Amino acid sequence: MPERYDAVVIGAGLGGLTAAALAARAGRRVLVIERNASIGGAATVYRNGALTVEASLHELDGLDPQDPKLPLLQELGLADELAFVAPAELNQVRGGPLDAPFTMPAGLEPALSACRARFPRHERALQRYFDAVLAVRGAASFATAHMDDEAWWLRHLPEAAPRLWPLIRHARATLGDVLRGLFGADEAVKCALAATLPYYHDDPERMLFLAYAVAQGSFIAGGAHYPRGGSRTLTEALAARIREAGGTLLTGREATRLLVDDHRVTAVEHRNRQGGDPRLAAAPLVFGNAAPTVLAAMLPEPWRAAFLAPYARRPVSVSLWTVTLGLSRPPAEVGVEAYSTFLLPAWMTALAD
Ligand SMILES: Cc1cc2nc3c(=O)[nH]c(=O)nc-3n(C[C@H](O)[C@H](O)[C@H](O)COP(=O)(O)OP(=O)(O)OC[C@H]3O[C@@H](n4cnc5c(N)ncnc54)[C@H](O)[C@@H]3O)c2cc1C
Questions:
Q1: What does the pLDDT average to over 58-83?
Q2: Residue 162: CB partners within 8 Å, gap ≥ 6?
Q3: How far is the CA of 13 from the centre of ligand 1 (A)?
Q4: 166-193 residue pLDDT tens
Q5: Ligand 1 contact via 14 beta carbon (within 6 Å)
Q6: Which pLDDT band holds residue 1 (cuts at 50, 70, 90)?
Q7: Are 340 and 58 in contact (CB under 8 A)?
Q8: CA atoms within 13 A on the CB side of 336
Q9: Taking the domains of the chain in order of start, what are their residue ranges?
Q10: Assigned architecture for domain 3-59+229-311
């Protein structure tokens, strides 16, 4: 007999934990299934000898009043509980077409001033760049704030339409298009502004400007934040919310099969890491925090193609390869000045390289 829940969440990454915590606090009986021995997915901290390693998340963007993450943290009671460290600079970029290191400060005015001081001939284009990025970010935040309220859109359509204009205006432009339109062939200014491109993509000619501007605008407007104590503090706080609300977190259990009835996923089969001890968890609502291809493989064969159809025309995204170096001396002694440093190789003469 399956165990019954109101919601089952596959994967205890930040996405799954947030969905589970919100559902649990809304009174749902929630089960989270995580295949690893620990929770957090990419957002995790581990130890290797004397070294404490933050596996991925090192800069959370925004957390300003326009940030759609902030209401979620507030709803979960985490906005005041978590402490964040905010470096004064977003990043430093060196090498490539830049003749000297460039440091991008956090905050619109300091960032704009630093860019103007370094690239005075682009003074007006820089103003237009920051305006465009922040307009898109503002429009996206506005749209997200009312996302779940259809009645609101019907009542407010005339005033809402102009606020969404930046999204319509740049709907098809790539980052490469926008930077070229503003800065022509000056690749140094492009690399200084968009040094963070590898956070999101590897190709400015394919990266949609909207997607770039939403994230980068959030860094500019709200700064970068590192959870004090590491990303584990964030994931453990989310897990505590789930447990406090009566939810269950299972680690070392892998979701292996999704059962479908009448066009809906109705239950999740999960097993221990050796593939044994199969169990069934039934729920009217299943959140899949695993990658779409992983989830598709769990579906009965006839449903796989339909599930993957929305992703069919998307190229496979970039893959990350990371090396973690522990230094025995303070990083400043080997020339690291900023919290985040982007090193562009000498052969890189253009952002697209
Ligand atoms: C190197 C690196 C640096 C990054 N830096 C930043 C940063 O500075 N700032 C920022 O905002 N973001 C950063 N990110 C991105 C951010 O960490 C991720 O976007 C976010 O943590 C992903 O969360 P998620 O829940 O979507 O997925 P994941 O963290 O991948 O979680 C998915 C979970 O599902 C589990 N799972 C998968 N299949 C199954 C199954 N069959 N059964 C049970 N469990 C399953 C996995 O074990 C995993 O725990 C970085 C990412 C990387 C890799």
A1: 92
A2: none
A3: 5
A4: 999 999 999 999 999 999 999 999 999 9
A5: yes
A6: confident
A7: yes
A8: 11
A9: 3-59+229-311, 90-222+339-344
A10: 3-Layer(bba) Sandwich (3.50)
